[in-house]
Write a structure and sequence with these properties.
With about 290 residues, the chain is α/β, with parallel strands linked by helices. It contains 10 helices and 13 strands.
Length: about 290
């Protein structure tokens, strides 16, 4: 909030904003382009940051109106709706979601899972099953703990710490974005702007997409401000935001989501649903975004 009284109308284009809108965003580097200037575009948005899994819990509890939640979490409630074509996805290596192993990948028997994102947990389980027929014993990797704190064969790390050099003793690693894109021959969508059941404020979509567009126009500025906090050079940070992430929910991203949903249903990680008729029904495509690279 920036001094706006809850309930007072605010203007975005020709649309008025009324009442405070509680928006939750991911606290990782990959989200910075999506919320660039959001509070100036929608002055009565109350923006907070948290881990992806916690955002999902807060949305489910009705503590948020809209949240950038992991895609597998968006599958869980048939009354959820994705309200924006801004997302966090990839069309190749993503850098910030990785599997690190002390053994050759095909020999993994125990796996520690980062608690930050349940989509990445589902994705690594799916890829190990499809590539090697593996269903390793799973353990939690509590928030704030490092791979060195575990005795497992492998660990899934996500977010800013996955971008940095691998832990000691690693003999193999996967970039899960790259592995999915090679296996599925489709993009992967990690997180989407999802609304709680009953939320009916379509004007917020325009602000979220405008913030995304402004963010992509200002990637050098974002990289310069954020690089040090995640242990990267400015050039490396800019390369990650520009070359490894994709921020548009286009037709091929929808196909990738549908494929991922089908497998999560088969694995008992999500209920069956017709995504295009429910979750994705209200999402408008961005003109020209299908072939655009960020």
């Amino acid at each position: 909030m920036n001094g706006t009284l809850a309930g007072s109308p605010q203007s975005f284009g020709n649309v008025e904003f009324r009442m405070n809108i509680r928006v939750g965003a991911v606290s990782y580097l990959n989200t910075k382009p999506l919320v660039y200037g959001l509070e100036s575009l929608a002055p009565n948005v109350s923006l907070s940051f948290d881990l992806p899994s916690r955002l999902a819990d807060r949305l489910a509890a009705g503590q948020l109106d809209v949240a950038l939640i992991p895609s597998v979490e968006a599958f869980q409630n048939p009354d959820y709706r994705v309200i924006s074509n801004a997302c966090i996805g990839c069309r190749g290596p993503v850098l910030s979601v990785k599997l690190f192993s002390r053994r050759p990948l095909e020999q993994i028997r125990t796996l520690a899972l980062d608690e930050g994102s349940r989509t990445s947990v589902a994705l690594v389980r799916l890829l190990l099953e499809q590539r090697f027929g593996l269903r390793p014993q799973l353990e939690r990797l509590p928030l704030g703990h490092a791979f060195a704190d575990t005795a497992t064969d492998a660990a899934l790390l996500i977010g800013d710490r996955a971008i940095n050099p691998p832990p000691d003793g690693i003999v193999a690693q996967w970039d899960l974005g790259d592995e999915w894109c090679r296996w599925a021959e489709l993009p992967f969508v990690f997180a989407m702007w999802t609304a709680r059941p009953g939320f009916d404020r379509p004007e917020i979509a325009a602000a979220l997409e405008a913030a995304r567009d402004r963010g992509l126009e200002n990637l050098p500025d974002i990289a310069a401000r954020e690089a040090a906090s995640v242990g990267l050079t400015t050039d490396a940070c800019l390369g990650y935001l520009r070359d490894n992430l994709y921020f548009y929910l286009g037709p091929r991203e929808r196909q990738g989501l549908t494929l991922f949903h089908r497998h999560t249903v088969r694995m008992g990680l999500a209920p069956p649903a017709a995504l295009e008729e429910t979750l994705l029904a209200g999402v408008a495509e961005t003109p020209g975004s299908a072939g655009r690279r960020t």
